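Example A, followed by Example B.
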Amino acid sequence: MTRRSLALVLLACGLVAQAADKVVGGPYTVNVGPRSATVAWVVQTSEARLGTDPGELSRTAPVLRVQKVSFTGLEAGTTHHYDSFGEGGKGYFKTPPSGAVPFQFLVYGDTRSRHDVHARVIQAMVKAGEPDFVIHTGDLVADGADTAQWPVFFSIERELLRKTAFFPCLGNHERNNPQYYEFFDVQLPYYSFDWANAHIVVLNTDLGNVAGSRVSRDAYWKEELRWLDEDLAKSRKADFVFVVFHHPPFTAVKRRQGDDKEVNQVVPVMEKFKISAVYNGHDHNYQHHLKSGVHYIVTGGGGAPLYPVDAPLAGITQKVESTEHYVGIQVNGKTAKIQAFALDGRVIDTIELASRAEAR
């Protein structure tokens, strides 16, 4: 084969490979700060097949590649539009403002199964307006190690995620898999950020997948709690502080009660710093508990099979309902309103909050 023929063959192979690439996720925006953000999308480059017989490779999985671009030097409190990979890659997001500027965000979780229901939840959220950002309380997919599940998640979420900033929380069904970190450009599974006069903290309570031994898990959790205390101490002046983690310290699901003794260690920290509200997932329903002035909201109605709320907790349970839903939060200066919405727009629950400064 001549050099010219070889070059033509290589060029043809490259064109075939390029033609095979297709976008199967995104665009979406993560790591949004006052002056920076990362726009990402997921590309399928090929497909792998698997089977017990060479002639019958019935199981397939996509080969995925994440493409990201980071922008710096942005203007705070501004809507930024982008075009990431052509006509289908257009979207926009807001950068967080400073000061007591009104804003709104949505919280939801446990979208890991019943894809038709997950799609209905996203449709309801899209119809609700354009939030400044959204937070997922974990269990995005049923198995974070299964590559084939991620394009399904991104396909369902597309119309929501291309219009806002996305802040994910690690759930137990992500299995602490590297794909979660890669897709969402996550460096550490616990982090915090500011939005206007609010401070938001996202924790990792999936201790079962964080390390292979009890000693390592205990060391990890001790360090995370130390970081949490330090982070909240720096944010004492914030009017509102919201904390997000997957496993709820309080639940009205009888078979789940007493499951997470480690997570209960977070409760004294929430009370110490007068946290405005805590958002959890894991239990597939809506729950609202109130203890020592801290609201604990379970929002796990994103698509996973519903759990009964068969054991309300005496003295702290305020509202429970086993239904698909999402939660909206509006912050307006020194006041905030939390509302849980069913998919038909019905208001399940309403919580009024005052600035933490008013409580001091």
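Example B, a separate protein, is given below in the same form.
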Amino acid sequence: MRVAEWIQIAFFSILVLAAWGRPLPPRPRLRVTVFATLAIAAILAARFMLYFSSPRFSSVVRDWIPAALLLVAYWQIGEFVAEPNQGVQARLAAFDSSFFRGVHIQPAKTSIGPVPALYLELAYLMVYPLVPLGVAALYIAGMRNNADYYWVVVLLATYICFAATPFVPALPPRLLTGYDMFEIPPNSLRALNRWILRRASIQAITFPSAHVASSAAAGLVLLRLESRVGLIFLWVALSIAVATVVGGYHYAADVLFALLVAVFVFVGTFWI
């Protein structure tokens, strides 16, 4: 078994234990149990696929399956997210106000031009393909033997964010009244991002931001393995971090803590 596979099995097992150890309604508890069990079964099936197919095919499946299971983990952690806590939202908004004052920025009086706005929305849209693209970059660079290391860092950074999310139930800033937002002109990419979030998100923030943590973790790993590719991925990851704050998709605190998580996990697993 790969290290990343053990990490996934452990996380989904914890989800099942939490579903039965917390006062969840019967249907969410059943959904968590079923999907987590199916995820573990998929990991084991990919592992033992080599006995029924070519070892190379089995290895390729194992390289890519964590990308799909990340979505399963995200949607299942949403079952544990309670109603938004007004106090939590107020504290996050207060942190943002202090942060912006500290960097001498007044969001409500800062207008983002059409071109920067389009770039930032494109950057935020990259949160969905960036992590799988990291695996593709390893393949193209002839370093797919590092896929397990890549997933160890990305999964740990992401799962730490998922695990903390139920304890910080809050809506994103863009849905709050009275939150000082940047002035962003409407564009098609912003409309697309909002459409995706309405239909595919858990309707709450992940704290820290799992998108920022996973993209930063991917960039750091690639920077270590292939510096030129890693610099590109890190640039995109930092663009995502800025876009999440400017677009009101996450609080500044979400992003800053996510970057710290990614760096902490990267440094902590540097021996791999």
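On Example B: The chain has a mean pLDDT of 94.
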